[in-house]
Amino acid sequence: MTLDFTSRNAIDPQAAAAMDTERLRANFHIGGLFRPGRVSLTYTHYDRMVVGGAMPDGGTLELPAVKPMGTAGFLDRRELVVVNVGGAGTVTVSGEAHRLGTRDMLYVGLGETVSFASDDAAMPAKFYLLSAPAHRKCPTVRIGIDQAKRLDLGSAETSNERSIFQFTTTIETCQLVAGMTQLAKGSVWNTMPAHVHDRRMEAYLYFDLPDDARVFHFMGEPAETRHLVIANEEAILSPPWSIHSGCGTASYAFIWAMAGDNVDYTDVDKVHLGDMR
């Protein structure tokens, strides 16, 4: 068996406010995404988002369905975004191979079968997986990092100079919205000032972080914030009611993905810094 599987129930803000660090991590933190020769999947009850990873180490890894889906195949009623954060590899979609270098993305539509392979087992691919239910089939599309829509935001003066690479704004999806943010050297803050979007949940994967560095990820309602300490290649689930912001002890990158009622990237409710506690 090459599958590691967990599931997470949805947590309301009042329950989260009463949690200690261990319980917060048990409900919102996802580790162990990239294990050699394995697929790791976490099925969440936030918009039925699945967050996972696949790390082929010489053979081929198939993407299996898990029990909560109630389907024979993983994508029988779903869509999928794959982002490679490791060495070069191939994602095969219903017999058609798509090569992904580091930071390249592949969108896969409803009804397909998917498998993963690395070009070199000594430098394996690390495929980050994001999936949400889909009601119609959209075309499978590969988007290289050089093809993503780029927005440069922030400044060195506020320690949040960053480039946002929007993967899905130029293609057709049902409900997945995904992209990557790269912080400039010397910048450490992301998504600050903070916001919430009650219409969509979000997931973060922090990567390109030195082994001895950490990101302090801030979550919770604006007037009742909490934090979790995150290492390289670990993920966070962000409920629709929660802010999602982070500050690192070094520069880093992160992949963000959303699923919910709309695909409008700019549809957010901004939080004034003076209202945060």
Automatic annotation (TrEMBL):
SUPFAM superfamilies according to UniProt: RmlC-like cupins
Pathway(s) served: Glycan metabolism; pectin degradation; 2-dehydro-3-deoxy-D-gluconate from pectin: step 4/5
Cofactor note text: Binds 1 zinc ion per subunit.
Pfam families: KduI (PF04962)
Annotated Zn(2+) binding sites: 195, 197, 202, 244
EC number from the UniProt entry: 5.3.1.17
Cofactor(s) this protein requires: Zn(2+)
Family the entry assigns: Belongs to the KduI family.
Entry function: Catalyzes the isomerization of 5-dehydro-4-deoxy-D-glucuronate to 3-deoxy-D-glycero-2,5-hexodiulosonate.
Protein name as catalogued: 4-deoxy-L-threo-5-hexosulose-uronate ketol-isomerase
Organism: Aureimonas altamirensis DSM 21988
Gene that encodes the chain: kduI
